[in-house]
Amino acid sequence: MSSETADKSASPAGSDTTGFYALFRREVLRFVRRPRNTFVPPFITNVLYFSVFGVILGERINEIAGVPYILFILPGLVVLGAISNAFENTSFTIFHGRWNRYIEEVLTSPLSYRTMVGAYVLAAALRGLIVGVLIALIGAFFTAVGVVRPLYLMAFGIVITLLFAALGVAGGLWADDFDDLTMLNQFILRPLVFFGGVFYSLNELPATVQQVSLLNPMIYMVNGVRFGFLGVSEVDPNASLAVLSGLTVLVVAIDISLFRRGYGLSE
């Protein structure tokens, strides 16, 4: 393994560039060519979210923090769709590659581990960003959607999709079967988002519950994207962005280390 690691680390720049493009293109085409599995489900789901929570429930709640309720929930739904799809893309492709053993073709290529992880993560992040934009466009059919802080919105969008794409790599290496992937997405990821201030304001919670809620990382992601859209946030967006960026770098480094060690890649 040590000689193989050395070889991977010393991969020629030209082969890495060409290989990165090939792997990245393959991963992008994988979700682009199957829109009914990648883009149609979030489209239908978010039409229902906006219809039920935004229109019907919004008529009773009216405003939160001076913002119409349907507009208040839009950033959270964007976050939910973006990170779920970024996570699903890498976790599924890594696990499916292990399951059908075609990931060995990537592992035996001259690509460095950094290039492999980078291609997987960036392709998945792109899918997450596309879904996030799609959800924002759906929201525009229900309410007037503006972007008050475009740079913050772009920064948070890129960071959170990269973070969950990187987490998906680790999830795909860890999972033993498809049920494990479902459990990660449905029973861990989505509950954290729903308790991350998507449908309510932290200020409406009792003080103790507010403090506990701040342990949920989704609070910072949802509020960061909300700051980009609306210019309002219940937590410091600069501190949130810095912490999330550092966490993203850490998780990507862990992914590279797992690939180098062969975790989940060899029987």
UniProtKB/TrEMBL annotation:
Stored InterPro entries: ABC-2_transport_permease (IPR052522), ABC2_TM (IPR013525), ABC2_TM_bact-type (IPR047817), ABC_2_transport (IPR000412)
Membrane-spanning segments: 39-57, 69-87, 117-144, 151-175, 239-259
Source taxon at top rank: Archaea
Record's GO cellular component terms: ATP-binding cassette (ABC) transporter complex
Molecular function per GO: ABC-type transporter activity
Any Pfam family matching the protein: ABC2_membrane
Ranges of residues in domain ABC transmembrane type-2: 33-262
Subcellular location(s) per record: Membrane
Keyword Ligase appears in the UniProt entry: no
Main subcellular localisation: membrane
Keyword Transmembrane: yes
Keywords, alphabetical: Membrane, Transmembrane, Transmembrane helix
Membrane topology type: Multi-pass membrane protein
Entry protein name: Transport permease protein
